């Protein structure tokens, strides 16, 4: 692996390497939250991780993002061992939580300037990129307003712009469309699809199954900390033996089956 | 539900909220409440000792009082009133800006004037309750030493609490009308800080300018004060006369307090709803002047430091707290200035005051930078090791303290180079101690929770206070009795070491 001098980021030599490879990932709180999970997500893929409340989706992704330490298992991000070299892994990754955490006393531009600084991006590159991002998310009239008066949707958009300003190779979003109006949701979906087209990998969790159905290349269903089904929509239909059913019906069937088995 | 029943029901709700807020401030989590209440009772019992030292000699005072005694008691009551006013302004601001139930109340089919009347009474009761709690050891000492007539001092606390709440509401609503809702929060917090500290500081400044001492009693008991004071039958002395047991005067004062609060409720309750709506409107989006949109370069730590400095500059609560700390530095600075021309042993007093202020300010700053991270996930997922994040944040604390106290040290160097060096060392050690304690006990929180930072760990709060006092005493002793400074320094270091030993983050 070599490093891109300008952005101080690892350059991935092997394009065939998985964007995310998780093996035997385990985390217990009072009970197992993630239970020896294996997951492989290919580079340039739009992957939707679905599951009922408390299934372990967010815990899994927080461990991948370096926010939680796993009890066991390995995490590889574009070939980088995220547990052994978290800084290198974080350099090429972005995390957006469901509860947008931004600074009330900063303007969107100041926030993006800070994020770009944290990722060590050259200001000559990050400033125009930040403007472009805020523009495309419809935040142009609010560039110089402090975020304290922003609605949840606007805060979500600022947080998303922050995640994209350092041009990550892997973007992990926990419920990114919650709180967004229809137009904003379309903006966000467009931005994410654009990133995927340019080779970036996107992983989202969502309870809006229609989003997963329409946008995701592959879908993973997690229940009780285990992956219970995975594949394209067609593959999931084959796995569940339901010919032309909707994702919602399949999801409920899979989760019910898992609950019955437990 | 009838109007009266609805009012009673809402009053009960307010009392329950106030009680739980108070418990949360005192005890933190629910599991620790019993222990916290016991600790509070023990603390209150112990407080009788310093109360006796301060006020015990006044227990034998009998009517009729002379002017010097009347001036001292009136000034003490005024000081208590100023502190209650400060607390009440803070409470009113919180009702406008921070109560999470305003949307619910405003959208409910209740008479808002009644609701806000109850809330005004709740503010008055909470201010009076806290004042009664704090004044009890002092009144106990007076009652034990001078008889039951001193029980009327409790009545004075109630009377001035009522008037302080009324004045606080009037001041805050007038601020809304004069400068608008967006600036009122900052100004009200600064006004509260200045009122709380201003009276004591003003007395100290007068004492230094007139008598070259930090003692405020020097002014109050002077012949000049007696000469300028009004005659003995002036209403100005009513609070003092009521405090020593004149029942009729006390009745008048309590009636006056109730009347004032009632008038404020009648005038302002109907307008409270409008004010709250205006606050909600202004918190939507406040356009700021556009600055140059080019991003600044620098290292990742530089980005963190720049962000922290920017947030500290924009933190109204911190600004008001820092202002109060700086106000407390005015008297010693004045003493320093006077000491240039005339040799004075009092200049030694500056060192502990400065070191103590630095330690306290550093504790607040360290909490805001280390624990008060609003975008914790963002910083945790940034590509830099946690140790470098912490280092950048501590650098911000040290730089801020350095910027605030460097001018004082420079001035001190002109008076005494040795004392300046000792004070500078004291500031550094007190700052590092406060930052270390915050680091060992850090709990991720929102910056807006700054008011409640003490509740996350009582141990950290007490350790921070003891270390500040310890390093201040050590620095003072280093200037006067160096051998005693060694003992004091070792004791403070031992407190710090013990704090580290029992801290959750020592591994």
From TrEMBL, chain B:
<feature type="transmembrane region" description="Helical">
    <location>
        <begin position="455"/>
        <end position="473"/>
    </location>
</feature>
<keyword id="KW-1133">Transmembrane helix</keyword>
<protein>
    <submittedName>
        <fullName>Permease</fullName>
    </submittedName>
</protein>
<keyword id="KW-0812">Transmembrane</keyword>
<feature type="transmembrane region" description="Helical">
    <location>
        <begin position="154"/>
        <end position="179"/>
    </location>
</feature>
<feature type="transmembrane region" description="Helical">
    <location>
        <begin position="479"/>
        <end position="500"/>
    </location>
</feature>
<feature type="transmembrane region" description="Helical">
    <location>
        <begin position="249"/>
        <end position="268"/>
    </location>
</feature>
<feature type="transmembrane region" description="Helical">
    <location>
        <begin position="421"/>
        <end position="443"/>
    </location>
</feature>
<feature type="transmembrane region" description="Helical">
    <location>
        <begin position="186"/>
        <end position="211"/>
    </location>
</feature>
<keyword id="KW-0472">Membrane</keyword>
<feature type="transmembrane region" description="Helical">
    <location>
        <begin position="396"/>
        <end position="415"/>
    </location>
</feature>
<feature type="transmembrane region" description="Helical">
    <location>
        <begin position="343"/>
        <end position="368"/>
    </location>
</feature>
<feature type="transmembrane region" description="Helical">
    <location>
        <begin position="36"/>
        <end position="58"/>
    </location>
</feature>
<feature type="transmembrane region" description="Helical">
    <location>
        <begin position="317"/>
        <end position="337"/>
    </location>
</feature>
<feature type="transmembrane region" description="Helical">
    <location>
        <begin position="110"/>
        <end position="134"/>
    </location>
</feature>
<feature type="transmembrane region" description="Helical">
    <location>
        <begin position="70"/>
        <end position="89"/>
    </location>
</feature>
